[in-house]
Structure formats: C-alpha cells, structure tokens
Amino acid sequence: MSASVTTSAWRNVEVGRVVLFSTGPFTGRLAAIVEIIDHKRVLIEGPSSKPEAVVPRHAISLSHVSLTPVVIEKLPRASGHGALKAAWEKAGVEKSWENSAWAQNRERSSKRKQLSDFERFKVMRLRKQARFEVRKTVAAARTAKA
Q1: For the KOW domain, which residue ranges apply (predicted)?
Q2: Is residue 55 within 8 Å of residue 48, measured between CB atoms?
C-alpha cells in the first residue's frame, strides 16, 4: 500500500507570487514578491507597463496585500528591476490578471458603484426582463416534458 502526498491548494507566499494591494497608496495595483523578509513582511515591486500602475520596490506587511493565483515561474530571489520586468512581461502577468474572474468581478463592481440612480433603475428593469424570459422558457420546457 502506497500513500501519495500532494500539496495543499492554498496560495503560498513565494518569490514570484503576484500580489494585489488592498490598502495604502497603491490600492488596486499589482506587484510581485521579490524577496521574503520574515513571516510577516516581503519585498515587492510592480514593474507595470502602464506608468500609473507602477509600484516601486519596498517592504510591505502581508496583511496589506492579497495573494493572487498568478505566479512568475522560476524568478530568482532578490532579482533586479530589469530581470523582474523581463520575467513580468514574459509571464504576461497583466494579461492573465485581466482575464481572471477576480479582476473581472472587481471591474464589474467598480462600474456598478459609479452608476447613477436612473442607471441602477435601468439595470433592475433589464434583470427583471431577463428573469421573466428565463422563467417563461423553463415553464414551457416543463409543460412540454410532462
């Protein structure tokens, strides 16, 4: 009898893991872990292609960031700015983040927060119409089946 050992599904704090800022002046920006300082702090840098999304290299507490599922594979520890930027672009971090469900949900909720009262009303009416059509289709399928 043999036992197989598998790793957990948790996101690990590791060099190359991309993080999302949840607080502070860089809220909503992405950065990569470059070095692990101790069990509570990491050294990060975000070499984004967009100038408004760049995060300078600095130490930050892990309580101020969220670990994303995006990882830059085989990033050397304490790699410099040029090496990190090249690995960032090669891994397509921004593209994979924009395609993730997490980023799409954040985008959707930020759009919803900016709606006016009348626009929220129109969204409610459209959702009611869609729900009515779905229920009508389900009811027709149920009667055809019986």
Answers
A1: 15-45
A2: yes
Q: How far apart are CA 130 and CA 31, in angstroms?
A: 39
- What's the Rg (C-alpha) of the chain? 22
Cα 74 to Cα 123: distance, rounded to the nearest angstrom:
45
- In a 3-state reduction of DSSP, which class is residue 96? helix
pLDDT at 9: 66
Q: Which residues contact 36 (CB under 8 A, 6 or more apart)?
A: 13, 14, 15, 42, 43
Q: How many CA atoms lie within 13 A of 98 on its CB side?
A: 5
Which tokens go with 74? 């085989």
What 40-48 contacts at long range (C-beta under 8 Å, 24+ apart), as own/partner pairs, is 42/13, 43/78, 44/19, 45/81, 45/84, 47/81, 47/84, 47/85, 47/88, 48/88, 48/94
pLDDT of residue 2: 75
User: Which pTM was predicted?
Assistant: 0.76
Residue with token string 């927060």: 113
